[in-house]
Specification:
about 60 residues, mainly alpha, about 10% strand, globular
Length: about 60
Amino acid sequence: MDIVIDTSALIAVIVGEPERRRVVELTTGNTLIVPGSIPWEVGNAFSAMFKQDKLTLDEAKKGF
């Protein structure tokens, strides 16, 4: 099945937020479809998290 996924779900998986497990369960074995803007949206989210001291620069680089 094709599943359209948004940035917040991807970020939850990348940084290990509480929703991570459920997102992985619901998407495993399926094809994920994302908008072409995802790299910029993820970068923007990481930038915001970095500025709020919720993510280190090394963690953002690794996640990206």
